[in-house]
Amino acid sequence: MKYEISFSEYLNKVYGGWYGKCLGGGAGAALEGQKTTEHVKDFSEYFNPDIPNDDLDIQVLWLEVLEQYGLNVTSDILAERWKRQCWYPFSEYGCFLRNYEMGIYPPYSGIFNNADFTEDMGCPIRSEIWGFCLPGNPILASEYARRDAILDHSGNSVWAEMYFAALESLAFFYSDIHSLLLAAEPYLKSDSRLEELVHMVSAACRDGKGWRSIRRKILQNFGDYDFSSALQNVGFLLMALLLGEEDMHKTINIALWCGYDTDCTCATAGAILGAMQGYSALDEEIKGFINDYYVLGIDVKRASNSIYRLAYDTCVVGVSISECGNDQVTVTDIPTDLVRLSFEEDTRPFLIQVDYESSCCITPGGDCTLTLSVTNRSKENFSGLLLINAPEYFETVRQTDFSVEANKTESVRLYVKCKNVSIMSQKNIINIQLVDGQDVVFENKFGICGSSLWKMYGPYFEPFVKGTYRNKPACDFEAAFNNAVSLDRNYRQLQDEGVAIACCENMLDVEKVMHFRGQMCCYLETTVICPEERDVWLQIGNNDGFSISLNEETVLERDEIRMYSPYNNYAKAHLKKGKNNLSIKLLRRGDKLKFAFGFKKNNGKHWNDSCWCTDLEYDIS
After folding, report:
1. What's the burial of 224, exposed, middle or buried (CB within 10 Å: 0-12/13-18/19+)?
2. Residue 609 exposure: Cα atoms within 13 Å on the Cβ side
3. DSSP β-bridge partners for residue 120
4. Strands 3-6 and 329-332: what pairing?
5. Which of 38, 33, 28 is nearest to 210 (CA)?
6. At what angle do helices 75-85 and 91-101 cross, to 10 degrees?
7. Which of 31, 105, 251, 293 has the fewest CB atoms lying closer than 10 Å?
8. What strands, in cross-sheet order, belong to the sheet with 399-404?
């Protein structure tokens, strides 16, 4: 189906969408992360439009990229610009930056070592730019949303951004929310939890249930301890749209009252409703909340911080694309002074895609198999050498004959074996060169993450305090089926033999090696080699007691049994240049042990504003 829209109406609706985004962000920002917000009567009580919001920030950066590249935008281009201009290291953003720094690129940058955040709200909130720049083309909007989403997410989060981008692309051509949501249904990932959620919320709203009842149902079926988990928040904002009676104030309030990731839910609901209705249809009270400005928290400079100008610039991109790549819409009555954009092409003669067959990580004595797909984008056939320069402890093919015809793709399967080393670097960059005779015609690089290396000692435990049974203390069944462990007691003996354990991610999965059942204590010990003296943060996820010592000094100790989350504990520490002795004592007093550990740089910022270290080595020699 092809659409037609006048430029003035296009601008009006994009303006409404961006205004709704800013309005909702300002409504929900102050209460972000609070899971109970029913004490708030109206969003105006906490409204603050002066807090920078990643929901908008990254999309303004993407607008800058679109102004330069148009539909030539790739995930690689987006990733490079993020690394250069967006400092945000929070949750999945930080995982992306860490992976990218180590040469692990999309889509693996959104998956590897990102289990806690890979299906969070960080990418569904970036959908508007694709829908607004590609009006009437939900398929194309969805595809470019995918290119964005895979930087730092996977699964339902990627599908949610794709769905919202399609919906927002269609929002210009529908006048009621029910019809709009129905039109966007084909762009849901079939047989996904996201599709199940959307259908459940739609049915509950049709049945006339109140928002509290539907909120409870969303949490029963899709709820998560993580306030930013995508599915529950997508459910909240869809419910707000369906129950909000197409009233901006009411819609944002319902989203806010649901709690959790409130800046995201309020902002996306506001953007969808604003784009469907247009700025001119908003009532004067709503228009009075923001005096046509937005704020940014990242390194993007626009000619103006006017929301109207942001909308106009978005429409310039949309018009320019409509005349060279979006044949599903015709924009009429374009102002004669509107200057079309000329988009840069990606002029690289070759592209190299790296696909890991199993993991992006390698362990001592282990291997990593991957496929290099080389696309020849030039007009000339290539026949020469493929050179592979890898760290010396990697055993792999160093060069091979390679040919690829013009405008074709050829693949090479690469097997990398790691020597059985006792020192492993986090970051291992492999350089690739295409060589014709004496000339290097193209080069690229990628990374394989090196596992952290530990010696594990244990299990240790002591007898459970016995009672009596038939006057036979030794037959107390509670004692017979339980052990005791204590954080205060030192179980470690110097003569104990340790077992080497390699961990590919922050989660130190000792139960892969420790198959002992029952309460126990174990110790993990390693030497961390730092290239410089530096202050660091320790970020710890745990569900049981632990004690951490660095260079024979106790840094943090917690005697607790709780549910795991990646943010349960943190502490400041100091790494010397060179070798640092690290020891972690872990207790398991329940059925499972979960413990995640990592170093972040401490440059005087809060731990959540700090980036992960990627330049450490682990030594168990």
Report:
1. middle
2. 6
3. 229
4. parallel
5. 38
6. 100
7. 293
8. 399-404, 382-389, 429-436, 439-447
Please tell me the pTM assigned to this model. 0.96
| pLDDT tens track for 257-308 | 999 999 999 999 999 999 999 999 999 999 999 999 999 999 999 999 999 9
User: 364 preceded by cis ω (within 30°)?
Assistant: no
What DSSP line would sit under 96-131, residue for residue? HHHHHHTT--TTGGGTTT-TTTTTBTTTGGG-HHHH
- Calpha distance 550→575 (Å, rounded): 8
If we measure between CA atoms, which residue out of 361, 354, 339 comes closest to residue 388? 354
Q: Tell me the residue length of the chain.
A: 621
Span 392-409, average pLDDT: 96
The span from the CA of 84 to the CA of 74, in Å, is: 16
Count CB-CB contacts under 10 A for residue 426: 21
The dihedral through the CA atoms of 531, 533, 535, 541 has a sign that is positive
* DSSP letters spanning 162-197: HHHHHHHHHGGG-SSHHHHHHHHGGGSPTTSHHHHH
Q: Which residues contact 430 (CB under 8 A, 6 or more apart)?
A: 103, 388, 389, 390, 391, 394, 416, 445, 446, 447, 448
Exposure of 39 by Cβ count < 10 A (0-12 exposed, 13-18 middle, 19+ buried)? exposed
Tokens of 81: 């610009």
Residue 469 predicted with pLDDT over 50: no
How far out from the chain centre does Cα 420 lie?
33
pLDDT per residue as tens digits for the range 209-263 = 999 999 999 999 999 999 999 999 999 999 999 999 999 999 999 999 999 999 9
The two beta strands, 483-484 and 462-463, are antiparallel
